[in-house]
Amino acid sequence: MPSFARRVVTLAVCYLATSLFATCGQPQVPLEQLLASVSAVQLAPARPKPPITLLDQSSREYDFVRETDRRLTFLFFGFTHCADVCPAQLARLGSVLRLLDEEKGSRVRVVFVSVDPDRDTPERVRAWLAGFHPEFVGLTGPLESVHAAMTALGLRASSRGLPAQDERDYQLRHPSGVLVFTPDGLLRMEYIGNVVVSRLAEDIAKLLDYDWSAVRAADS
User: How much is the average pLDDT of 46-75?
Assistant: First the structure.
């Protein structure tokens, strides 16, 4: 083979190897370094997903652990009559999901759990969530089950605020943060307060690009 041809073949092989290495075998930063680079608050110790089985917005049973397996999962407890925090958090997550391509979007789950089952029927949750993103999952069910899941995650159970003139027009105290379960199934982070959409998108890209199979293997 002429020397020029050998050089072309060599360069092509090197380029292919480099490309594959960059996309599939790129050396990973330590997990602690990855988590520190994300704008969420780190939670320690990491907690497993609670065994939540509630009705989704189509009135079907939804097993939270099974349905979110190996997915980057955002979990938020709130209620559809919430005046500000709930709409703001879900609108932010919806904006970020619209920035992802189909492949990356399929690896993310956003799950909303109602702390107001008396008013939040599956039909109401479905109509409300549709205004944020069509792929959001909304769950509702017995308040005891919801509170048990919150306790397992280290959260304070929801409670009613000041009484309203209309007994159906009440507000609820509930956690305002968005919990983040990494694809190895552990709760590791929480987004608290207002997070810039562009920064949240950067965080999601980092978390999706990480090879979590190695972390799962180490934990097993």
Answer: 97
Binning pLDDT at 50, 70 and 90, where does residue 220 land? low
Tokens of 220: 């097993």
Q: Which long-range contacts (CB under 8 A, 24 or more apart) does 142-145 make?
A: 142/117, 143/115, 143/117, 145/52, 145/53, 145/54
The residues, ordered by sequence, that sit 6+ positions from 62 with a Cβ below 8 Å of its Cβ are 52, 53, 54, 55, 56, 137, 139
- pTM score of the predicted model: 0.84
What are the two backbone dihedrals, phi and then psi, of residue 42, each rounded to the nearest 5 degrees?
-75, 140
Q: Is the distance from CB of 49 to CB of 150 less than 8 angstroms?
A: no
Percent of the chain exceeding pLDDT 90 equals: 71
Beta carbons within 8 Å of 161's beta carbon, 6+ residues apart: 170, 171, 172, 173
What's the mean per-residue pLDDT of the chain?
A: 86
Residues 55, 139 contacting (CB under 8 angstroms): yes
Q: Are 117 and 143 in contact (CB under 8 A)?
A: yes
Contact 71, 207 (CB under 8 A): no
